[in-house]
Design goal:
By secondary structure, the protein is an alpha+beta fold. The chain has seven helices and ten strands. The strands form two sheets. It has a five-stranded antiparallel β-sheet. The chain has a five-stranded antiparallel β-sheet with strand order 2-3-4-5-8, covered by helices on one side.
């Protein structure tokens, strides 16, 4: 189990916070951490993000022990189930029709983490030497980067950088990506919405994470840096400290 906290900030130009997140535990005290970014420009993004987080909490808390070889199927099937429920809910309530959300979720084991994502909210493993991005963004510009048509630097300023190619809630079917990573030799697992990495350079994030401060101070420092760097979007982070490993 990791020492984990959820941090969030509305940002300079947003009147409401459409992000949601949490740290959840099942009947055997396994740990699930989740982060969702309700889609700006879609109706009721904050409803969608909280709906998905609430669904993850509900279904996880009903579970007993999930073995490592069951984790991928559990995450995929649970996200697909919640996606169908969100899609049906939005269609039953015209004021919510078209709402959607990204989701990144991590199921924590002793030496591994299994991560699933839909959209462009990310998961990273971090130590003093590197920030390893676990997830791949489901976005128009990342598709071009993977094809070799854009560099990562060009993607940061591309006029269509905000186009997301896969979200939860807008279609009845969704296919999450799932990754398994060893956590040995890392200091932090970080989930974040694009409000952080769109405005704060990765080297700056890594530097803050390696200042050897308490978890709460580190999370607040990341939010403060996002404000200093002019974040116009909601900024949310789930930061989990990996104990007992060293670089």
């Amino acid at each position: 189990m990791l020492n984990a906290q959820f941090f969030t900030d509305t940002g300079f130009q947003r009147e409401k916070n459409e992000d949601a997140g949490g740290i959840f535990y099942n009947k055997t005290n396994q740990q699930l951490i989740a982060l969702c970014d309700g889609m700006g420009g879609h109706q009721a993004g904050e409803i969608a993000s909280q709906f998905v987080c609430d669904g993850l909490q509900k279904y996880f808390e009903e579970e007993n022990l999930i073995e490592e070889d069951q984790a991928e199927d559990w995450l995929k099937h649970t996200l697909q189930r919640i996606n169908r429920e969100l899609y049906d809910y939005s269609n039953q309530n015209p004021e919510y029709r078209g709402m959607g959300t990204t989701c990144v979720v991590a199921l924590v084991f002793d030496k591994h983490v299994v991560v699933a994502n839909v959209g462009d909210s990310r998961a990273y493993l971090v130590n003093a030497r590197r920030m390893e991005q676990i997830t791949n963004d489901h976005s128009f510009v990342n598709h071009l980067v993977m094809l070799g048509e854009l560099t990562e630097e060009e993607a940061l300023t591309h006029p269509r950088r905000n186009i997301i190619t896969k979200v939860m809630g807008t279609d009845r079917r969704v296919s999450p990506d799932v990754f398994m990573k060893r956590t040995h030799f890392y200091d932090y697992l970080m989930l974040n919405t694009d409000g952080l990495t769109d405005y704060v350079a990765l080297d700056t994030i890594k530097s803050i994470l390696n200042q050897d401060a308490a978890l709460e101070q580190t999370g607040e420092a990341l939010l403060m840096q996002s404000r200093e760097d002019g974040a116009c979007d909601n900024v949310s982070i789930v930061l989990a400290q990996i104990e007992g490993d060293s670089v």
